[in-house]
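Homework-ish question, so no full write-ups if that breaks the rules, but can someone show me the predicted structure for this set?
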Amino acid sequence: MSRKPMARPGGRSARVQASVHAAVREIEAEAGRAALTVPAVAARAGVTPSTIYRRWGDLQELLSDVAVERLRPEEPPADRGSLDADLTSWARQFLDEMASGPGRAYVRDALLGDPDGSNAGRCSAYAADQIEAVLARAAERGETAPTVEAVLDHVVAPMMYRILFRPEPLPATYADRLVRAVLTAPPADG
Amino acid sequence: MSRKPMARPGGRSARVQASVHAAVREIEAEAGRAALTVPAVAARAGVTPSTIYRRWGDLQELLSDVAVERLRPEEPPADRGSLDADLTSWARQFLDEMASGPGRAYVRDALLGDPDGSNAGRCSAYAADQIEAVLARAAERGETAPTVEAVLDHVVAPMMYRILFRPEPLPATYADRLVRAVLTAPPADG
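A: Not a homework solution, just the prediction itself:
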């Protein structure tokens, strides 16, 4: 499928994206997921269906794009005074959000309508940015810190793997345990 | 959606499953994915479309079921004489299969048509069984071994996370590195 590359924010393109995304969120909130069709989204957003097909390819790709936006963190990770506290707090919040009903649905949507893997890549980049902020603060404090990649591999990956592949519920202490392990025995993978 | 629970193997139910799975594989191989429809699969398998809808719900759920079957390991992990060698060899093969084009497609299918998470759970159980076999052999040899859960968290999860969420290709040495880390600094999460 040959689609236009995602336009940069600003101007008409950004307005179209904002109104289409808002239309998806509104229709879903009001009438549920089954009511989401390209014509319905287009009508609500005030654009033609062909604008949506041209830009997003199909409904599944549009839902993937909207899901990734919803997974974008709204603020930098809280500063709790130490690497241990910052990373634990961030990991708990991440687990809480991703393992929730809506979180699971967004992750699923993000992966589903994503033929080239770029939306999934954006999800991972959001997590990496947040971790980087936590580790940069640790470095300023003079604390020894693992690499971003080690935190992705040994804190983020296990949480996402269990959310996607293992049906059992996860206690918040699972996040704590992963953080403790990566801080006390940092794997040699920098 | 209320579907019948998956019947136990044996008898008519097993024959239906085998012929429907075979029909999916054949149509996909001959005519590509776009040719897969419930009526086409039913005709090839010699069943009615309603048999498929009743048992699998819809095409996506059928494809998920077929994908999980394809991800089922065909043999126990090779015995290479030591835990390190066995686990490294298994992890390399797992990475190679899952990161391949077909592997990625099966994982995606398995996750997508899987409203209750049971198919994804089967994928993870296959990996856990293989790891368990490797660790049991290590125990028989008197080797110190990590837990199955630690290997899932720190070897399987990072590989699957990167396959799903990070577009970059993964070298085989990535698997080696994860195994070395879990064997030399086993995380305190047994």
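Now go work out the reasoning yourself. Hint: Residues 71-184 of chain B form a domain with the Tetracycline Repressor; domain 2 fold (CATH 1.10.357.10).
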